[in-house]
Amino acid sequence: MAHVVAISNQKGGVAKTTTCISLGACLTERGHKTLLIDLDPQANLSLSLGHFDDAPGETITDALETTLNPRKVDWDNLVRPTSMPHLDVIPSDARLWSVERLISEKTGYEFGLSQLIGRWMDNYDYILFDCSPSLGPLIVMALTASNRVIIPIQTEFLAAVGLVRLIETVDAIREHTNANLEFNLLAVMYDQRNGICREVLNKLQENFSARLFSTVIGVDTRLKECVATGQPINQYDPKTRATQQYGMLAAELDQMVIGEQEGK
Ligand SMILES: Nc1ncnc2c1ncn2[C@@H]1O[C@H](COP(=O)(O)OP(=O)(O)O)[C@@H](O)[C@H]1O
Ligand SMILES: [Mg+2]
Question: Terminus of the chain with fewer CB atoms < 10 Å: N or C?
Fold first, then answer.
């Protein structure tokens, strides 16, 4: 049964997509079959893995549309391969904006994505959602379908602004649709030579100790480069710092999940 993780923050440019691909690829390297689902109409995750908006084939938009109007979907071809064996992706496209609006008018829409991923839960060890930078119906569906949400936080001044609203959203989801939702914070784009970065990291450790991953992701320009090649960072540059750090994050997440499953 897959462990389902949403990568979310209502800020743009905070490494949600980068974390989704890099963590997913490192989990795969640890022997886990992993499915990435692009839930952002901007489709950056799909593009970064070489799946372009105008390519033929169905996307997550078509899959979600079936919750409105039952019709046939080519489920097997919805899931696309990536450059890494055992790392698959369901791409997104710009039509997701309008489908999101239509879906939210339906009673019980919150559970649409949970029902949809049911068909893949036994085929994968991890399912990761790359969420869009908004707190709309898509994030409600994603958090309802997830075991945990990982919130990447940039280690810079004002980075935590808006975090309160996201945590309130998590609390609301726990109350209404998913009582077991866990959340963790991940410090990203950390530059240890920068005093503000160090100060922000200290504050995060003080305020969120148990929820903050001990792995910290530093600044690494190789992450920007790998996007153009369609390869995850661990394939593009196995020795770079970000590969090691996302590898450590995958190990830390694995330990957490094993601990939780044993505790049940
Ligand atoms: N640790 C990092 N070091 C340097 N650049 C990074 C790092 N993480 C992400 N980036 C870059 O920052 C930009 C925004 O990241 P992205 O993952 O697209 O954010 P989001 O999905 O939250 O909008 C991208 O150009 C990405 O390559
Ligand atoms: Mg993104």
Answer: C
CA distances from 20 to 86, 112, 131 (A): 15, 21, 9
Nearest residue (CA) to ligand 1, atom 25: 224
- Note the pLDDT tens digit of each residue in 208-228: 989 999 999 999 999 999 999
Pocket of ligand 1 (CB under 6 A): 12-18, 44, 188-189, 217, 219-221, 223-224, 227, 242
Gap from CA of 220 to ligand 1 centroid (Å) = 9
3-state secondary structure of 152: strand
DSSP string, 191-223: -TT-HHHHHHHHHHHHHHGGGB-S---B--THH
**Domains annotated on the chain, with CATH:** 3-263 (3.40.50.300)
Q: How far is the CA of 200 from the centre of ligand 1 (A)?
A: 18
The DSSP bridge pattern shows strands 3-7 and 148-154 to be parallel
